[in-house]
Amino acid sequence: MADLSPYIGSILGIKVQLHWTFVALMLLALLAAFAFGLYYFFTLIVLLFVCVFIHELFHSVTARHNRVVIKKIVLLPLGGASVMDESKPVDPGIEFRIAAVGPIASILLGIIFGIAAVYSPAGIIRESMQFLFEINILLGVFNIMPGFPLDGGRMLRSYLQRRNSLIDATRKAVRVGNIFLALFIAATIAYAALAPNYDLSSRELIIFWDLIIAMFLYDGAKSELQSTYMKHYASGLPVNAALSRNYVLVDADSKIESLYGRLVRAHTHIILARSGKELMVVKRIPTQQEYARRKYYTVRDISERLHTIGPNRSLYDAITTMSSANVGILAVVDRGRLKGILLAQHVEYIVALKAQLIASERA
After folding, report:
1. Which of 38, 94, 283, 301 lies at 20 to 30 Å from 209 by C-alpha?
2. Measured between alpha carbons, how far is 351 from 112 in angstroms, rounded to an integer?
3. Tens-digit pLDDT profile for the chain (363 aa)?
4. pTM over the 0.70 mark
5. What SS3 string covers 1-42?
6. Where does residue 246 fall: left (phi above 0), alpha (psi -120 to 50 degrees), or beta otherwise?
């Protein structure tokens, strides 16, 4: 989905990306606006995400002020994310400040729109200011709640890191977040059941929407815990621990028909191609119809650039490189020489085995 998640530019040197799900949401909202005349509704959605972008921009600017590299800002249907370079550890105090500034920015925006609503003329302008006041205050308060990937979860973990390791602090923060989620769901059901002036469909909608939010937070907490496990165990493992040589290396200008015999003899499906110093990986084999039309002639035509990593890096560096480039394979290159490859699935398997070994030794 990388191609469907476009970059729309940069601000203060920070790239801004629209996640493909966000693009889909905005297209649906735009179609609804044209089909049903909901232009005001569409405008409010756009203004809402401008506020979300400002929230994330405050995170990014604070991070850069504290010498933390921000790779990009990604806008999602349920908010946004400032993607940090995680190759270097971030001091808990700095992480706390980076996390805290987002809710503060949203609440300040809410106050500004609230003041504007008071002094705006009655009508659509005042209604818009009132909406932006309420939604920004809600966004600020919601993000303070103790759950990943919310800012409150990161603030809680940073606080817990004063007396705990990163992985223990993450475990405790996730546990607190799960307790909060259980209370959140219970409160939602109780509110929907007891609140007056709601018909059955409205009550169902309230429960349905809050369950979606709860699932989003639960999945975010699970992903954060997995990411922390990977960081904890993979950082101590060298690239060579997961190095593989199960591939075929061919010249980029080789004919496609020459691949069959090479693959059969090597018992592999991974094909690398070299053109001078450039390394490529074959992404697809032409269909019979494409081949019959001679649409593709050489290996170069069906390959794309292969990302590389040095042999002295850790497996966690490899994982972050793969994640940033949205690829599942890396070439390990030492002084221009190809030493082997890393596959995402193999790397995760090695790290999981290492974690189990350490856990068994402690038991």
Report:
1. 38
2. 48
3. 445 678 888 888 888 888 777 778 778 878 877 777 778 778 888 888 889 889 989 999 999 888 888 888 888 776 778 877 766 778 889 999 999 999 999 999 999 999 999 988 888 888 889 989 998 998 899 899 888 888 999 999 999 998 888 888 999 999 999 998 888 888 888 887 777 776 667 777 777 877 888 888 888 888 888 888 877 888 778 888 888 888 888 888 888 777 777 777 777 888 898 888 889 888 877 666 666 666 557 888 888 889 999 888 888 888 888 877 778 899 999 888 899 999 988 888 888 888 777 777 766
4. yes
5. CHHHCCEEEEECCEEEEECHHHHHHHHHHHHHHHHHCCHHHH
6. beta
- What CA–CA distance (Å, rounded) separates 273 from 306? 9
Question: Beta partners for 249?
Answer: 272
Pair of tokens at residue 162: 């004063």
